[in-house]
Amino acid sequence: MSVLVVGASGAVGGAVVAGLRERGEDVRATSRTPEKLSLPDPVRVFAADLNDPAGFSPALQCVDRLFLYADLAEPEALLDVVAAAGVRHVVLLSSSSVTSPGAAEDFNGSRFLRVERAVEDSGLAYTFLRPGGFASNAARWSWGIRADGAVALPYPEAVQAPIHERDIADVAVVALTGTSLIGQKPVLTGPERLTLREQVSTIGEVIGRRLSVIEQSEAESAAMLAQHVPDVWVRQIITDWREAVGATPLVSDEYALITGRPARTFRAWVADNIDLFR
User: Fold this and answer.
1) Residue 210 in contact with residue 149, Cβ under 8 Å?
2) Does residue 36 surpass a pLDDT of 80?
3) How confident is the model at residue 201 (pLDDT cuts 50, 70, 90)?
């Protein structure tokens, strides 16, 4: 039987495919644009769109484990197709936002909660991966760093515990290749708390440049972000930064407990993605 990785073009999904192949698993992958994927020959690639559940049927034949992103407008319809195909275990990439007070009323938390509940209601075995903020969110600073060595931020003292996407993928691979995480909902974070200002400084240290932070108003930040992300995400990003000033976000030890290895640092993420900032 095979493992199907949905969204293999993403940073997490691609790393999940690589990790499964290292363990000798038979892997399939889906993407809305499979022609853009560059995966090893043994990996069968299928064109599939999460908004077209029926289109997943060919990819799901002889699949018993599924890695799924929680970016679903109608999760119930897809899970009906998944269950009918004989899949036994779904590993869902969710978010730690579901654990926050008021998550059901929050834009981010509510959409992940809906998918988690749909998976639970499907009767399938599941594992919910609940990462906090991704280290890769720093990639949006790359244009300012490359252009003039500066990052504009409205709340540079916002505190995060950014996680390397490969840590998320490592836990997904453990879940997909065994039974120890069935029914579990690990919250995953990076190993350290860093302000946004400290993250910028870390990038500068790794690339060997002195970088500066330019403080913005919320309106200035919203106008800049709107050039790259939808308005609903602009509001969410700025709200998250504002509420993180002076915060002490959870630093989880779940990664180390599950894998037996220390979590990767933000500095390691920058080193792995150094070409973004040069």
Assistant:
1) yes
2) no
3) very high
